[in-house]
UniProtKB/TrEMBL annotation:
Signal peptide coordinates: none
Keywords from the named record: Repeat, TPR repeat
KW Repeat (keyword) present: yes
Protein name: Transmembrane and TPR repeat-containing protein 4
Entry annotated with the keyword Repeat: yes
Lineage: Eukaryota, Metazoa, Chordata, Craniata, Vertebrata
């Protein structure tokens, strides 16, 4: 079965990022409690420019002897603003530079540390991301989104106990946090705490009715417990809510294949490919089912189609070789065994099958008298 699908929270720009009229956000009439987004200031900045230009023109007309120093002052101010505008525009060239620049302005803002951590995690630098997520939680001990994302990274690093602690704390602070409930279920499943994992998944679904990824993970749990009917129902729910959920479709085909229900596996595989006609993983699984059903020609077609989409799949070359081996097309089997071993020399079973085929070919070329 395929791995669980965690869910991370997106970048948190805070309430100020939504923009809005300047006056309600200026802290004059009432306390706002957030940093004003830059685009909130555009209208007021335009008014400021008009007011300054009018004032300079008026002063130059009334006090002509101060015209030169006034113009020099305005020009200097303009140069400073141009330089600051250029610097800020440069900081907006990427998320990384934007969020990092915010650290110098708001070093004690938990959301800024969260955003830097999320950006680092998205770029694959999980070690640095952990440090920023931890700082965000330290600055804001009830920051559930930071706990959720930090718990996901720790889960991937197999630090399951701390991940479970963080995610449990997140859902205790915000009981309707569906993503954290699902991620907690994934961690508990990895710890083989199956009953607790099932409860966590159902809590996630209770708070988010249409949650295909959670149904997918619930199906994985049931499959681990050999509750095959429940697993199939969960994955079917995932595909009903999200018809292009490739992992759920593929796991249904694999489970039915593994339990010997080849006819039903074929029907599910064909249904999936009608919705996802270019999904090479489903083609691969359906081809395996058809091969076991001795529908060799059709199975070959799906294997070859999958290889056209993903030509460097060692497992696809290996299973196609097994199909040709059973079919009696030994030279083609030899070719694809060799391609599979070239892509993955440690492919399970492929080396043994290849050696068996070579012995058979040698016997055919040099039959014993």
């Amino acid at each position: 079965m395929l791995a669980g699908q965690p869910e991370e929270e997106d970048t948190d720009l805070g309430p100020g990022a939504a923009g809005g009229p300047f006056l309600p956000a200026c802290n004059i009439f009432f306390r706002v409690g957030f940093v004003v987004a830059e685009r909130v200031l555009y209208l007021s900045s335009a008014g400021y420019c008009l007011l300054l230009a009018y004032s300079v023109g008026h002063c130059c007309c009334r006090w002509s002897r101060y015209r030169k120093p006034l113009c020099v002052s305005v020009l200097a101010l303009l140069c400073v603003y141009v330089a600051r505008c250029a610097l800020r525009s440069h900081q907006w060239r990427s998320e990384q530079s934007l969020f990092t620049s915010a650290l110098t302005v708001c070093p004690l803002n938990a959301k800024v540390h969260y955003n830097v951590g999320k950006n680092l995690a998205d770029r694959g630098n999980s070690t640095a991301a952990i440090a920023y997520y931890r700082e965000a939680v330290s600055l804001h001990p009830t920051y559930v989104h930071a706990m959720n994302n930090l718990g996901n990274i720790l889960k991937e690093r197999n630090e399951l106990i701390e991940a479970e602690h963080l995610l449990s704390k997140a859902v205790s602070i915000q009981p309707d946090f569906a993503a954290a409930w699902m991620n907690l279920g994934i961690v508990q499943n990895s710890l083989q705490r199956f009953e607790a994992a099932e409860k966590s998944y159902w809590n996630a679904i209770r708070f988010r009715k249409k949650y295909p990824d959670c149904y997918y993970n619930l199906g994985r749990l049931y499959a681990d417990l050999n509750r095959n009917v429940d697993a199939l129902n969960a994955w079917r729910n995932a595909t009903v809510l999200k018809p292009d959920h490739s992992l759920a479709w593929n796991n249904m085909v694999i489970l039915l294949d593994n339990t010997g229900n080849l006819g039903q596996a074929e029907l599910i595989g064909r249904e999936a490919l009608r919705l996802l006609p270019n999904d090479h993983t489903i083609m691969f699984s359906l081809a395996n089912v058809l091969g076991k059903s001795q529908k060799y020609k059709e199975s070959e077609g799906f294997f070859l189609h999958a290889l056209r989409i993903n030509p460097n799949s060692a497992s696809c070359h290996g299973n196609l070789a097994v199909l040709y081996h059973r079919w009696g097309k030994l030279e083609l089997a030899k070719k694809h065994y060799e391609m599979s071993l070239q892509l993955d020399p440690e492919a399970p079973g492929t080396r043994d099958n290849y050696n068996m085929l070579r012995r058979k070919l040698d016997q055919l070329k040099h039959p014993t008298p």
